[in-house]
Amino acid sequence: MPSERLTKRIIACLDVDAGRVVKGVQFLELRDAGDPGELARAHAAAGADEIVLLDITATAEGRKTLIETVHRTAREIFVPFAVGGGIRTLADAAQVFEAGADKISINSAAVAHPGLIAEIAERFGSQAVVVAIDARRGRRPAEAAEVYVAGGREATGRNAIAWAHEVEERGAGEILLTSMDRDGTGAGFDCELTAAIAATVSIPVIASGGAGTPQHFLEVFTRGRADAALAASIFHFGTHALAGLKQTLVEAGIPMRWPC
Amino acid sequence: MIAIVDYGAGNISSVKKALDHLGAGAEVTTDPVTIAAAEKLLVPGVGHFSRCQALNTQLRKAVLESIANGRPFLGICVGMQWLFEGSSEAPETEGAGLFPGKVSRFPAGVKSPHVGWNQIDIGAGSRLLRGIPDCAFVYYTHSYRAPVIGETVASSEYGGVFSAAIERDNVFGVQFHPEKSGTIGLKILENFCAL
């Protein structure tokens, strides 16, 4: 059944280390360019449909800072706000929700303890649980893509499509699919892989990895069947680039929240 | 004071944060006495309709009395769904029955949950949606929806048309999340605060 009026989402990702945004900050002439709260607010004002804060800190000290960062950032924005990175237990998730996140994203911990997905979903609702899948396929077909964990360092032997199906069954509300083959290349999203996952599950799929041009977004929303696309690098181009991106997509017939 | 009724259905902090941002005096409460004393009630909610059981057992009387006394009431998401007779999501859990009809799941073949930004078609004369442009974008996340009824003041389309906002006298409900709908959502909450 058609649902043309539900818009495709453009999600801005902030990579945070010990309370500071570590990339995607060049475009803003802010007094404090690396402050996640200010950047989140600027992205939301520029038209980002959702903000993801990804914590790349590994230390215990950094984890404490994360909670403060989430709390401070959440106060600044009134669009959906997701937080990922290092959430290993229901208690970790509860702390992040308590600090003001609307959704949490789990990856390695979900692979290690798949029961965690249902645990969090039962307590906070499926809409609050995003399972991030980092997948790599090299030259193999999309159906052969493999799941990686630990920031892409460890292969799991799990098939990405089978895993996507499993996380939906276990109560995930959305899938954040990152193509490790494309991540950081600016060569475009992996549309084949995204489409293969989208065809497997009935929950929304967020495509990530490879964004470089507006054309890449158009492709992943059409050929890739993605419901949303995430990027940090598009914001290197400046807030005008986000407006330009949405305008381009609207003109191409993609339903967008624009103007917003 | 606006009482944000906490019945364990989550999403309380987002709503509180938005009301704080607007400078509205809001207090999160589970206490029937505080509810009875509040000038306005806000029942948020996200998740499963069965959570409304807690609302029914402990707070129903205080909430319904406040409504009967003419105090403005706003239900968000599951908080709006509760205003109807019930939901197929949890048939054993009663709704308040203040609006006719039952809440039901999106039809098979429609991607569910309905997550993201969608437009609202706004009818004339809504007080809650005063100043909101027709076809404004709002944020949704839900798998069940309420039918369009006489009291529907805005609707959205997703696997058919459903109630985005309902309103009668002092009772208001929105299926979307105004606290997550950017400046449009804040304006809607501001309208409620100003009633």
3D structure, described in words:
The complex is a heterodimer of chains A (260) and B (195). With 260 residues, chain A is α/β, with parallel strands linked by helices. Chain A has a single domain, classed as TIM Barrel. Chain A is built from nine helices and eleven strands. In chain A, strands 1-3-4-5-6-9-10-11 form an eight-stranded parallel β-barrel, surrounded by seven helices. In chain A, helix 7 links the parallel strand 9 and strand 10. In chain A, helix 1 (36-46) packs across helix 2 (60-74) and helix 8 crosses helix 9. Chain B is of the alpha/beta class and 195 residues long. Chain B has one domain: 3-Layer(aba) Sandwich (Rossmann fold), CATH 3.40.50.880. Chain B is built from five helices and 13 strands. Chain B has helices at residues 12-21, 32-37, 52-68, 78-81, 182-194, and strands at residues 2-5, 26-29, 40-43, 73-76, 86-87, 102-105, 114-119, 121-122, 137-142, 144-145, 152-157, 161-168, 171-174. In chain B, the strands form three sheets. In chain B, strands 2-1-3-4-13-12-11-8 form an eight-stranded mixed sheet, with helices on both faces. In chain B, strand 3 (40-43), helix 3 (52-68) and strand 4 form a beta-alpha-beta unit. The longest helix of chain B is centred in the first third of the chain and has 17 residues, at 52-68. Chain B is globular. Chain B starts with a strand and ends with a helix. The model of chain B has no long low-confidence stretch (mean pLDDT 94). Chains A and B meet through loops of A and helix 1, strand 7, strand 9 and helix 5 of B.
Summarize this structure briefly.
Chain A has 260 residues and is α/β, with parallel strands linked by helices. Chain A is built from nine helices and eleven strands.
Write the layout of secondary structure elements.
The complex is a heterodimer of chains A (260) and B (195).
Chain A (H helix, E strand, L loop, with lengths): L8 E9 L2 E2 L14 H11 L3 E6 L4 H15 L6 E4 L5 H9 L4 E4 L1 H5 L2 H10 L4 E8 L9 E4 L4 E6 H10 L4 E6 L11 H10 L4 E4 L5 H9 L5 E4 L7 H13 L9
Parallel strand pairs in A: 1-3, 1-11, 3-4, 4-5, 5-6, 6-9, 9-10, 10-11
Antiparallel strand pairs in A: 1-2, 6-7, 7-8
Chain B lengths: L1 E4 L6 H10 L4 E4 L2 H6 L2 E4 L8 H17 L4 E4 L1 H4 L4 E2 L14 E4 L8 E6 L1 E2 L14 E6 L1 E2 L6 E6 L3 E8 L2 E4 L7 H13 L1
Parallel strand pairs in B: 1-2, 1-3, 3-4, 4-13, 5-6
Antiparallel strand pairs in B: 6-10, 7-9, 8-11, 11-12, 12-13
